[in-house]
Write a structure and sequence with these properties.
mainly alpha, flat
Length: 105
């Protein structure tokens, strides 16, 4: 049984936290660099080191946000079998109505 109040447990916990912090450091640095590039040179002293003539990261972010948030999700039901096409069309209308009814978007 582990005693969380023992000095051994506290030491092992501290070592685990330090190891995790060290392993996550490269990811924190990459995120920091990406944020600096995103805000550009004129944002603050911590902005990008060089001028960014066209901020492609900001452009991609805006484009993806528009694609994700521009419209409510929709359902497409289709089939290759002709006898099931009316049922697929009815299912598509019903599911799209449910999406609007529960305000999924």
């Amino acid at each position: 049984m582990v005693n969380p109040y023992s000095d051994e447990f506290k030491g092992r916990l501290g070592s685990a936290v330090a190891a995790s912090t060290k392993l996550m450091q490269p990811f924190r640095e990459k995120r920091y660099e990406a944020l600096r590039e995103f805000v550009g040179k004129n944002y603050s002293d911590d902005g990008a080191s060089d001028k960014v003539p066209v901020n492609y990261l900001a452009m991609a972010t805006v484009i993806y946000m528009r694609q994700l948030a521009a419209a409510a999700p929709r359902v497409l039901c289709s089939t290759y079998n002709p006898q099931f096409k009316p049922g697929a069309a009815t299912m598509e209308v019903a599911l799209n109505d449910i999406i609007e009814e529960i305000d999924l978007g």
